[in-house]
Amino acid sequence: MSQTAVPASPPAPAPLDRTARTVIAVVVLGMITTVLDATIVSVATDRLATEFAVSLTTVQWVMTGYLLAFTATIPLAGWAMDRYGARRVWLVAVGLFTAGSLLCGAAWSAPSLIGFRVLQGAGAGLVSPVGIAMVARAVGPQRMGRAMAVVGIPMMLGPILGPVIGGVLVDSVDWRWIFLVNIPAGLACLAWSVRALADDRGAGRERLDVLGLALLSPGLVALAYGVTAVASASGSSTAVVGGIGGGAVLLVAFVAHALRTDRPLVELRHFAHRGFATATAVQFLTVGVLTGAGFLLPLYHLIARGESELTTGLLLVPQGVGAALAMALTGRLVDRGRGRAVVLAGVGLLAVGFLGYTAVGRAPGQVWLGIALFAIGLGAGCIFAPTSAAAYAALDRAAIARATTTMSIAQRTGGVVATAVFATALQHHLSGAGGANPGDAFGATFWWPLAVAVLALVPAVLLPAPRPHHAPEGADR
Questions:
Q1: Which of 5, 27, 228, 332 has its CA 20 to 30 A from that of 217?
Q2: SS3 464
Q3: Integer Cα distance of 427 and 351 in angstroms
Q4: How is this protein positioned relative to the membrane (predicted)?
Q5: Separation CA 68–CA 203 (nearest Å)
């Protein structure tokens, strides 16, 4: 009697063990405050200008200083982990951020607040790449989907909840609490990290690529400063041209240097792996479009619809709900080899959501906008976990630290550039011939994030097909 062979279904990925769950929880606790803090200040700029009797141009440096310091320290993450161990670097990063938060809450002038924000940003720039690298090492490639779905929660919800929490604190308590609120979480994270994280001592002899650091960090900072000047009404042409041009020259010089050096600060040869290259490209475009949209969406409700800061934050909640729901549902799909399909669905949902916002010139109802925001959130929640899993699957464990640094730089650069492009487009439409209706100006501007979302379909389609778990590390398909 013959039997027809039935193809065996792929084995279910092993559950996350206690050690992996602990690392994930510690990292999420550490990341949530740093991500919130990047946007929580946005609703307090007028209050800070009044408090310190300075112009809005000066207060803008409270946000810009944080951004530049954040950007400057990211390239050090991979080298520092290899030399000193991820646990030590994590403790230093969270400690710097917490100390900076305390000092910001005690600031007595605008210059002191700006200086303390730089300290805070220096710590925050290390938290995300170090935390993600620790999670990737703890869970391994087979369980990366579920792990990154959880770690992605603060990255997706932080920009949405930041203005809401900031509005409540500024209106109900005092502006200082937008910084002091970080201290309990920071201290709890430090205490838990000391007790729960294993001491993974680094090699101790890892040489710092000094030339690479001298090219990359200033290049990223100059680029961020230049594109931020583009988005600022007070930005001069000298700042724009000098920042973008100088930054581009330094970054090109770094690429040439990195490709000739055995152990560069950031390992660009990882892009030879199809999985890493396409996943990083998807993150560059989608994190960019989501960061830029995080600038546009609140402004639309504040300017075109005349909502208050707190109401605006609450109206953006559907995006957070969609992101949380998607991340809760897609982690296991990624671990079962459905990552590329999940990414394609996510990018498509982003495009549909932004297409809905191109109609804001016709003043659609809040239900329409809520559905569009929910679609954007669903799309965002479908992207981070599978692209991270695809990127790390192409590399061996020893490469994780520097690969995480590379991806963090791509995300940050995409966010800065997209925000500048969207802000410039909005200014152009608002100041157009005859003065555009604010709704029409925003409707025209939302075609830009829609276009970037559609462009992200190209690397998403090129993501490699899932490999069997027994495939050798580093093989591409």
A1: 27
A2: coil
A3: 23
A4: Multi-pass membrane protein
A5: 29
Q: Which two structure tokens, joined as six digits, stand for 212?
A: 């690479």
240 alpha carbon, distance to own chain's centre: 23
Tokens of 69: 């310091």
- For the chain, what are the domain ranges? 17-203, 209-264, 270-468
Q: How far is CA 290 from the centre of its chain?
A: 9
Q: With 0-12 CB in 10 A as exposed, 13-18 as middle and 19+ as buried, what is 113?
A: buried
pLDDT in tens, 183-240: 998 999 999 999 888 877 765 666 888 898 888 888 888 888 887 776 665 556 777 7
Domain covering 17-203 assigned CATH 2.30.30.100 in the classification: no
Chain centroid to CA 427: 24
Is the pLDDT at 469 greater than 50? The verdict is: no
Q: How many CB atoms lie within 10 A of CB 465?
A: 10
DSSP string, 340-365: HHHHHHHHHHHHHHHHHHTTGGG---
Weakest mean pLDDT among 10-14, 315-319, 326-330, 429-433: 10-14
Tokens 């200086």, located at residue: 115
Sequence-ordered list of residues with C-beta below 8 angstroms from that of 432, at least 6 positions apart, any chain: 441
How far, CA to CA in Å, does 269 sit from each of 23, 260, 360, 389?
A: 29, 10, 44, 18
Of 331, 20, 399, 285, give the one whose Cα is nearest residue 148: 331
Q: Which residues contact 433 (CB under 8 A, 6 or more apart)?
A: none
CATH code of 270-468, in short, is: 1.20.1250.20
